[in-house]
Task: inverse folding
């Protein structure tokens, strides 16, 4: 038999029907639902007089719009409140399991899926959110969809789609001290660009990836979309299986054994050819910091803000100049001299317990610098928050001057009141540094949790490898 | 959705690469639970000098005279020409809704982000892919000739100058073309395969019951 990639296997096992031109009806095992991209889909289904296809495939949570403080009194913004209430009403009407705002299990949709074992190897997982690529860390085919597709999944349990190309990103070697999965993925994006994976599903392989925890793997897959790829994937191994055992939605007993036997087949066959391959030597990766308004505008912390005058391509040069103007930066400024106003540790990229532990280890026994107006930690879920509190991490952060918040998407996209004011500059563990992403006129630098924590203490970027 | 067949429209330029969906429709407008109402907030942060929010009266907004779509010569534009990787980032279909509601029926660019491309096709907004050199030429022509129009013919898969002197062919996959030409609802098409879906689902349930817990 022709050797197949993991993506080929996942694709083949979900084909319900395919047309001559390759348009394929693909079966969807898991549909994650949140408040922002679903109301119009439920309404569309109702207007068309159609029924929800399979209730048990759906799991819902409000995350984008929820406040991270004062939850006991509900949501004060009436527009946000209506959106969350609409999700509640749609879930109630259709009997969909929903973790409500004050449920301990509530959190960012891409944190709670894996945490609950609702994301399982071999599945197709979709959600009306581009960071659905996160779930690919579990060897499931997971990708973000628009609202019309949300309606399509609700109504048919399928999507009409075409197969993407196979791309392999191989990362080899031990990660240096102070370097995390976030630095790896930013380095990958810096190398291949924000459209480097467009039209592809990226499989991450190599010894570095195999050595990562599931949380690190999720960080890696999460930002596949920032490289243009709808989906990222990592093969199943013992780390995957150990993570899933005992999770509430994971199988148990005899079914668990059967599932594990199947999951162990979920890897690319030896000798498979990929359409594109990129290799990165992990030993060369340094702490990454973005300087511009797209994730590919990234340098290492020991470098300087790039100079557009050295860029030969005129379209790129103009893009760089616009980005520098927006970011309020001068070319050739050392990255370590960039002073910050706000620090955000959170988002579906970096809000899991290991992220919080790594940041807390940097912060322990120190104080947030006086020029930092707000340093906040927003755990990815109520369960992450509870675990962190059990370990005393909340004290570490609070004692240093951080705010310790309730779980949600928060300042990653600033749909709630957590935001940058015009001109404010953040070190953020999130995934997008687009113009206005964290607030109109706000300036975002993407970094790892360790780098964000160190920047909070120093008041500017510092090389976390030299942190003592 | 509205059918797309042949369309003759005024062209506006968006002479930038990597225009992301956060810029096309900023997040504060995503709090709406409706499918409509996004047109006035298309490119909000670039288009207005004041900060916008959902429900802010249009009379209070201060348009940015420097923003390209605010120039009188592009009023009524329905074809947007942009550079590569248009629509990258967030999956928000609101970006396609906002472009449509503003009045665009077509975007022309050398490449698109995958999710945005799909979202356009599902809303009767035709994303045309042309070579970088052709897009470059169009951007120069739009700037040089006020009132510059193009004719987009989906059946023939061509973009032609209004006088018909020059036409460029574009590719689109047959299924998407068929749906756009006929304004078809994909859910309806898929449900014609309902029996196949049920059979697939039953087999899957037998073979991997843990997926249906």
Result:
């Amino acid at each position: 038999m022709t050797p197949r990639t993991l993506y080929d296997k996942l694709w083949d096992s979900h084909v319900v029907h395919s047309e001559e031109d390759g348009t394929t009806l693909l079966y969807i095992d898991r549909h994650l639902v949140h408040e922002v991209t679903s109301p119009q889909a439920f309404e569309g289904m109702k207007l068309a007089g159609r029924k929800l296809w399979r209730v048990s495939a759906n799991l819902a949570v409000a995350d984008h719009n929820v406040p991270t403080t004062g939850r006991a009194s509900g949501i004060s913004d009436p527009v946000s409140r209506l959106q969350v209430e609409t999700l509640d009403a749609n879930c109630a009407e259709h009997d969909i399991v929903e973790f409500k705002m004050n449920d301990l299990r509530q959190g960012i949709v891409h944190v709670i899926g894996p945490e609950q074992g609702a994301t399982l190897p071999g599945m197709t997982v979709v959600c009306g959110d581009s960071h659905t690529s996160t779930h690919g860390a579990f060897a499931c085919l997971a990708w973000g969809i628009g609202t019309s597709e949300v309606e399509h999944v609700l109504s048919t349990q399928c999507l009409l789609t075409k197969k993407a190309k196979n791309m392999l990103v191989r990362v080899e070697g031990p990660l240096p001290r102070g370097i995390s999965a976030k630095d790896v993925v930013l380095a990958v994006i810096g190398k291949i660009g924000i459209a480097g994976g467009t039209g592809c599903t990226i499989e991450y392989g190599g010894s570095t990836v195999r050595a990562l925890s599931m949380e690190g793997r999720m960080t890696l897959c999460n930002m596949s979309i920032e490289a243009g790829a709808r989906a990222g994937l990592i093969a199943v191994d013992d780390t995957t299986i150990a993570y899933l055992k005992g999770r509430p939605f994971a199988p148990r007993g005899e079914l668990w054994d059967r599932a594990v036997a199947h999951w162990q087949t979920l890897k690319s066959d030896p000798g498979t050819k990929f359409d594109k391959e990129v290799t990165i030597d992990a030993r060369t990766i340094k702490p990454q910091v973005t300087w511009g308004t797209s994730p590919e505008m990234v340098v290492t912390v020991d470098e300087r803000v790039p100079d557009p005058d050295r860029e030969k391509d005129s379209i790129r040069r103009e893009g760089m100049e616009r980005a520098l103007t927006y970011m309020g930066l001068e070319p050739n400024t050392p990255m370590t001299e960039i002073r910050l106003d706000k620090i955000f540790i959170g988002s579906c990229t970096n809000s899991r317990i290991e992220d919080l532990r790594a940041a807390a280890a940097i912060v322990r026994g120190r104080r947030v610098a006086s020029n930092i107006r707000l340093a906040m930690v927003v755990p990815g879920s109520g369960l992450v928050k509870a675990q962190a509190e059990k370990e005393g991490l909340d004290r570490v952060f609070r004692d240093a001057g951080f705010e310790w918040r309730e779980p949600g998407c928060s300042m990653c996209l600033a749909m709630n009141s957590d935001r940058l004011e015009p001109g404010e500059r953040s070190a953020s563990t999130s995934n997008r540094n687009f113009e206005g992403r964290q607030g109109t006129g706000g300036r975002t630098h993407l970094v790892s949790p360790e780098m964000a924590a160190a920047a909070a203490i120093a008041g500017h970027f510092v090389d976390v490898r030299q942190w003592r | 959705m509205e059918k797309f067949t042949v369309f003759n429209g005024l062209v506006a330029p968006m002479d930038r690469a990597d225009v992301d969906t956060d810029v096309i429709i900023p997040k504060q407008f995503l709090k709406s639970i409706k499918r409509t109402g996004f047109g006035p907030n298309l490119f909000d942060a670039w288009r207005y000098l004041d900060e916008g929010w959902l429900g802010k009266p249009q009379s209070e907004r201060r348009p940015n005279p420097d923003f390209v779509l605010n120039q009188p010569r592009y009023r009524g534009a329905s074809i947007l020409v942009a550079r590569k990787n248009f629509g990258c980032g967030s999956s928000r279909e609101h970006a396609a809704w906002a472009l449509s509601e503003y009045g665009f029926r077509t975007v022309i660019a050398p490449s698109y982000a995958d999710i945005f491309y799909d979202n356009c096709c599902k809303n009767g907004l035709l994303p045309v892919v042309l070579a970088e050199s052709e897009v470059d030429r169009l951007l120069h022509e739009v700037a040089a000739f006020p009132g510059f129009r193009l004719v987009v013919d989906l059946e023939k898969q061509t973009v032609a100058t209004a006088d018909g002197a020059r036409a460029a062919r574009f590719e689109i996959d047959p299924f998407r073309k068929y749906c756009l030409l006929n304004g078809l609802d994909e859910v309806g098409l898929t449900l014609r395969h309902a029996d196949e879906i049920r059979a697939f689902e039953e087999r899957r349930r037998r073979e991997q019951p843990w997926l249906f817990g």
Remarks:
- The first strand of chain A starts at residue 15 and ends at 18.
- The mean pLDDT of chain A is 97.
- DSSP finds 15 helices and 19 strands in chain A.
- The radius of gyration of chain A is 21 Å.
